[in-house]
Design goal:
The longest helix is centred in the middle third of the chain and has 15 residues. This protein is of the alpha+beta class and 351 residues long. Helix content is 27%, strand content 21%. A hairpin with a 4-residue loop joins β3 and β4. The chain has one domain. The protein binds protoporphyrin IX containing FE. It comes from Gryllotalpicola protaetiae. Keywords: Iron, Metal-binding, Oxidoreductase, Peroxidase.
């Protein structure tokens, strides 16, 4: 057994290694107080369930990230909220629209074995029974050399190493929630027949990389930018604002269903929303991302991913503030500790 194989992954390991399988589970929480308390117990003790299933094969690197939607956050922890948290906005361009769909909780479950992912989801939903309704459930798989079903390598430009934490984890700009992240998910269906009618060169111009060997291409002159350019956000100082994507293909060929589950983690929610505006409305407006001509977004939901200490601190309804009622209870550690803990979990080089 290699050294890394003996280390179980904590809940909220946003930077968990790219896995061979994943389930993207979005649920809504029923309105009752009892449903809320049941959910509170399950999410704050999610580490126990990760150990229960993940310990059976540590080399399969089971992980689970819990995201909490805006409305549920206010129910769980009404005293303080992450500064940018709000529901996914509908983004309507002239031709294509990104819909906003319901979701109180996201469970991003990853492992290198489909059976571990399945078992974790089964036990998780058992523990949530009666309190939640499944809004969206997608089983994703890694496709050849990390390609999407359009045939292109997907994930190349992700931040790595020392850049990762800076791109993905909240810092001093929102100290109570340092070490957390925002995550946006969208389930896309592709029209592969229409895509196949384009030549390889036309497809490469849409994406902005060569198909076979994944080399980045310059945009053609003119107002129509490639996907990789429309999804690049300038930091105003000559740099780029990155997000961490762990998209996965899914599909049922027997039903003509071929898709990409988009998932993007970011320190700043506005960065992902700006990418979506550039894709759906266009930059300049009217010149939308042509990936959308063969890709229909069925869902769109935003969540906050608390750091593990803040997640555990939700057990008593604590949001990190001082309150005598919290005395004796395991309070959330200070923000700096949350960030340290998150930094510690960053398996640099794990991507
Ligand atoms: C780049 C596919 C949706 C953000 C790419 C690349 C591919 C791809 C093949 C080039 C390789 C790479 O760097 O990963 C897809 C597919 C999508 C999708 C199939 C769903 C239909 C999105 C969405 C966003 C996004 C919704 C953001 C809201 C990005 C970013 C890059 C990228 C930031 C890297 C750009 C760069 O710096 O080079 N995508 N993408 N993608 N995509 Fe997407």
């Amino acid at each position: 057994m290699a050294e890394g194989d003996r280390i179980p992954l904590d809940a909220q390991s946003v930077d968990a290694p790219l896995s061979r399988f994943a389930v993207f589970l979005v649920v809504t929480v029923d309105a009752s107080d009892s449903a809320l308390e049941q959910v509170r117990d399950v999410v704050t003790e999610i580490d126990d369930l990760i150990k229960t299933v993940g310990f059976r094969d540590l080399a399969a690197h089971l992980s689970c990230v819990v995201g909490i939607g805006s409305t549920l956050w206010d129910r769980l922890s009404p005293r303080a909220r992450p500064s940018e948290l709000h529901p996914f906005p509908v983004i309507a361009g002239a031709r294509h629209t990104a819909p906003s769909t319901p979701g109180d909780l996201l469970f991003h479950i990853r492992a290198d074995r489909a059976d571990l992912v399945f078992e974790f989801e089964r036990l998780l939903l058992d523990s949530l029974r009666g309190a939640v309704t499944v809004a969206s459930e997608t089983q994703g798989f890694r496709y050849f050399d990390a390609r999407d079903v359009l045939g292109f390598v997907d994930g190349t430009a992700n931040p790595v190493g020392a850049e990762l934490a800076g791109a993905v984890l909240i810092g001093d700009e929102d100290p109570d929630f340092a070490g957390g992240s925002y995550v946006v998910v969208q389930k896309y269906l592709h029209d592969l027949d229409t895509w196949a009618k384009l030549s390889t060169e036309e497809q490469e111009a849409v994406i902005g990389r060569t198909k076979l060997d994944n080399v980045e291409l310059d945009d053609a002159p003119g107002p129509q930018f490639a996907h990789k350019t429309l999804s690049t956000i300038d930091d105003g100082h000559g740099g780029e604002l990155d997000i961490l994507r762990d998209n996965m293909p899914f599909g049922r060929p027997g039903h003509g269903e071929f898709g990409t589950y988009f998932i993007g983690y970011s320190r700043a929610l506005w960065v992902i929303e700006r990418m979506l505006e550039r894709m759906f409305i266009g930059e300049p407006a009217g010149f939308h991302d042509r990936i959308l001509d063969v890709s229909t977004a069925l869902t769109g939901t935003t969540f906050f991913v608390p750091s593990r200490p803040v997640l555990v601190g939700l057990a008593d309804g604590d949001d990190g503030g001082d309150d005598e009622a919290d005395a004796g209870e395991p309070a959330a550690p200070p923000a700096s500790a949350a960030l340290d803990a998150a930094d510690e979990s960053l398996g640099i080089g794990s991507l």
